[in-house]
Amino acid sequence: MSGSETEKEAHTTATEEAKPEVAINMIPVFVMGKRYDVPEGLTIMKAMEYAGYKFIRGAGCRGGVCGACATVYRKAGDYKIYAGLACQTVIEPNMYLTQIPFYPANRAEYRFEELKPEPEEIFKLYPEVFRCLACNACTKVCPMDVEVMDAIAAIKKGDIAKAAELTFSCIQCGLCASRCLGELPQYHIFQLARRIYGAKIAPQAEHLKQAAQAVEEGKYEKVLQELMGMGIEDLKILYQEREIEPEMAGEDWEPADKRHL
Amino acid sequence: MPYTEELKRLIKIVEKTRAERVARKRRGEEFPLMSMEERAEVLKYHPDYGEEGRREIKVGPSKGYRVAHEIVDLLEARSRVDPDAVDLSQIHVETDVLIIGGGGAGTAAALLAEEQGAKVIIATKLRHGDANTMMAEGGIQAAAKMEKDSPYIHYLDVMGGGHFKNVPELVYTLVTQAPDIISWLEGMGLMFSKLPDGRLKTMHGGGTSRKRMHYAADITGIDIMRTIRDEARNRPRISAMEFSPAVELILNEHGHCVGALLYNMETEEYHIVKARAVILATGGCGRLHIQGYMTTNHYGATADGLVLGYRAGVGVCFLHTVQYHPTGAVFPEQLEGFLITEKFRAAGANILNIDGEQFVNEREPRDVEAAAFIRECLVRGKGVPTPTGKLGVWLDSPMIDILHGEGTVEREFPGKFIAHKRFGIDISKEPMLVYPTLHYQNGGLEYNANGETVIPGLFIAGEVSGGVHGENRLMGNSLLDIMVFGRIAGKNAAIYAQEKAKKGKLTLDHVRAYHRELEEAGIVTDRVAPMLLPDYTDPEVRKRQLTAYYVGTLR
Question: Do A144 and B418 touch (CB under 8 A)?
């Protein structure tokens, strides 16, 4: 079954295609132990697609931020286990790999609004946090360079803010949980820590509530209705007359024209 | 791979002009913004402006409308299933509200529907949260600093960005709901970047007249998605069916939407989910690779919802424009299409040609900015060539550390910093090479400010819809869009489910009618839609896959 000419063309010219444009040097990689020869320089994801795999699981954003394509691999003659995201990791000759698109990890359920900003809340929901053996396997496997073990240590010490900051880049791929001797679901614990920090520890932005309330009270209703009734030409004039906040202006900048604030 | 010797030589040219450019930036001297006439002139080089990329849709509610070939190909395609083969009496599961799509819009909708007391199922093609939402980096707009900004000014910015063609009632809703959205997210624990007193940090984006972009470092979308998904998982009345895309909407004898036919991609079964109301929140179309462009989009962005809604009778609008993000990576090869957030430019990084010269202000609306890059590379011949024969322009990220202090790039852009570091490029010391990349579906299915479509019981939210952004969306308004209209659709769908939903016999007659219309229009095709997933198999391999059919995952 084939698409139209345009569709075919789009697909073959799409720059993301796993097709090399320069001289092809083929290298062997072993996908779950089976050898495929693929062009060097590809990411693991593109190499698998080149070989004929079509992902249902194990592919997501293709930009290194969603955690769908966690992959573990070894290199020939090297005892070490390595991990990376398939969409970001470039293949090496004789690498042998498998994806871990899912790893079971218990997640606690909670009523967020009832939680207090105290570490005991986390301990209650995730008592296994104290099973951490400080082996640091989680940190070593993290494809985002999160200091996973340090963040768990921070939680144990009751420092939710530090745990939240340390795990901000977590993409919840689950590799940490897959390697954990203490059987911790680190990435779920961190999610809880970040939410408690963001909503209940970090200083809150009062100006948001004021702005929302001003809308609620109809402060802008009249001027907005005027804008909505305006023709394109009149809107264009207003648009071009806008006062632009300078890029390097500080937080205290205020416009000269305050009519519509 | 790190920069080649040739690119390193060209970077030296950038370094030569850097001190002077930094000094100009410090003095507040910017490259002049274009007048409306100059904008019109440069937009001729934008991919949307070439008629050869489009053709008329020959069937359906928007028959005669010219949109990209790749989209028409999907609209002029048959259902994945023979309607006669589906037994509509076999209901797999029933719910109050069925949400198709598990990204930001769908998840926000689920939370609000659940708060109205509805039982909610989120059916999603990949995992819950696998969506473009996750990939949004820049931030989320809201006029929330009353001493310098207001929804009035936000409204003007949105309209100007959209060429003044946006649907006014939708823009009104977008800008007025915005401050409450940020407050709602903060209350759920989003880690916004803040000043010590709790005020939110804000930045400019292309086309904004005030700094109203709120952000969580350079992973705002991730933080929104993981936070609201976490909240959805806490709610006992919300459940998610993963790897189960909808392939058709199901109507009833009154023409109301009452569910969908889902396809379990893993077991290859089709299931009927019956609902009292349905929300389409399937996102965009980047993986169609319109006009052959690389894309920043998620693997699943294949315009499924457009196909479903259109077949059921919802028209499309503003779909003739597609947004190309000005700054997608073109080097290294492995990062191609990778989104480089507009925030780099907002933080002071210049855009430069091969001679290290500025040729455009960094904060033009996206279509204007992208068109200026294309003109510089293809018309003026001032692009920087990559080892694989592509062209790009420099994004001078090291300026940010010079302007705001060493370590700023690594701290404010951790995602981009790590991604480049993996290839031996330190973006706090070396500039990035960028080119426009397919980013966003500006238009989509028609709806109103209540999230309603012309089909009772069918609501929509997010990128699948069209109207609020007119012909061009501004940075920071898509995260806002999915939150605002996700919440509205969720709430109204739940109310509809309780108060207005009418019982009736289930039918796929609209699919049969669509097939007849295709035949009457002389469209003989074996294409099927929705596509579900793009195909990146090597064409030589594909030739040998004798029993696989490659339009989506149909096997």
Answer: yes
Residue B331 to residue B313: CA distance in whole angstroms? 43
* A236/B129 CB distance under 8 A: no
Alpha helix ranges (H) inside B327-466: 343-346, 366-374, 398-404, 408-412, 414-421
Residue A2 pLDDT: 35
Which pLDDT tens digit goes with each residue over A31-88? 999 999 998 888 999 999 999 999 999 999 998 899 999 999 999 899 999 999 999 8
Decide yes or no: CATH 1.10.1060.10 for domain A112-201: yes
Instruction: Give B155 to chain A, closest Cα distance, Å.
Output: 8
B-chain residues within 8 Å CB-CB of A147?
none
Q: Which of residues 169-228 of A touch B (CB under 8 A)?
A: 169, 171-172, 191-192, 194-200, 202-212, 214-216, 220, 223-224, 227-228
Among A66-70, B15-19, B109-113, B216-220, which stretch is predicted with the lowest mean pLDDT? B216-220
Per-residue model confidence (pLDDT) at position B493: 98
Please indicate whether, in this complex, the C-beta atoms of A60 and B180 are within 8 angstroms of each other. Answer: no
As beta bridge partners, residue A23 has none
B169 and B265 belong to one structural domain = yes
Could you state, in order of their start, the residue ranges of all structural domains in chain A?
Answer: 17-99, 112-201
Whether residues A228 and B169 touch (CB distance < 8 A) is answered with: yes
Count of structural domains within chain B? 2
What residues in B contact A90, CB-CB < 8 Å?
Answer: 334, 423
Orientation angle between helical segments B220-234 and B104-115, nearest 10 degrees = 30
Which residue in A46, A191, A200 is closest to B226 by CB distance?
Answer: A191
> Other CB atoms closer than 10 Å to residue A249's CB: what's the count?
15
B214 is catalytic: no
B325 classed as catalytic: yes
Whether residue B226 lies inside any domain: the answer is yes
Question: How far, rounded to the nearest angstrom, does the alpha carbon of residue A146 sit from its chain's CA centroid?
Answer: 12
Q: Domain A17-99 belongs to what topology?
A: Ubiquitin-like (UB roll) (3.10.20)
Same domain, B295 and B156: yes
